[in-house]
Amino acid sequence: MPDQGFSGGCLCGAVRFSSSRPPLIGRACWCRVCQYLASGNASISIIAESVAISVTGELAAYESRADSGNVIRRSFCPTCGTPLFCEAVGESEYKVVRVGALDDTELGRPQSIIWARSAPSWGWCDASLPAATTHVNALESVREKAT
Fold first, then answer.
1. CB distance 144 to 126 below 8 Å
2. Calpha distance 98→38 (Å, rounded)
3. How high is the pLDDT of residue 49?
4. Is 100 helix (H, G, I), strand (E, B) or coil?
5. Which domains does the chain have, with CATH numbers?
6. 57 partner at 20 to 30 Å CA-CA among 66, 124, 128, 133?
7. Chain segment 3-22, per-residue pLDDT in tens
8. Nearest-5° angle of CA 19, CA 79, CA 48?
9. Which long-range contacts (CB under 8 A, 24 or more apart) does 140-143 make?
10. Alpha carbon 98 to its chain's center
11. Is 29:36 a contact under the CB 8 Å cutoff?
């Protein structure tokens, strides 16, 4: 991962965000909920420290129970619907940032895959990446990368 911060926003430009710190890790998620959000594909996201992210513009949010059992808050632009962030309710230390919303999508190269068992038969998973069959907590991903 790069050693600089990052920025991004939504399709219509109503929401912008930036981080003073670099992403901690990038990953692809094949859980069924992410497939809904990514038009049948894996969602590609980076994990970042919440305290370093600043947002301008209004966000809307939707909460639901993920395949992991956690309640997840997904934030998006209320005007154009661009998915921007998600976080486990009660775990505010880290935020998941959708790579499609980054100004530089190269920052989002996945370093691991989660929920690989839920990928459809035609889904592509990079065999060189570590793949978990189910959920791996974002905090665990960051800790594993640090060791």
1. no
2. 10
3. 94
4. helix
5. 6-146 (2.170.150.70)
6. 66
7. 789 999 999 999 999 999 99
8. 20
9. 141/24, 141/25, 141/27, 141/47, 141/112, 142/24, 142/25, 142/47, 142/94
10. 4
11. no
Residue type, 112: S
Instruction: Assess contact for 115 and 135: CB atoms under 8 A.
Output: yes
Count CB atoms within 10 A of the CB of residue 47. Answer: 21
Q: Which amino acid is at 3?
A: D
- Quick one: tokens of 87? 């976080």
| % the chain with pLDDT above 90 | 64
In one letter, which amino acid is 53?
A: I
3-class DSSP state of 10 = coil
- The tokens describing 27, both together, are 């990953």
The pair of three-digit structure tokens given for residue 14, joined into one six-digit string: 């109503």
Both tokens assigned to 113: 């895959």
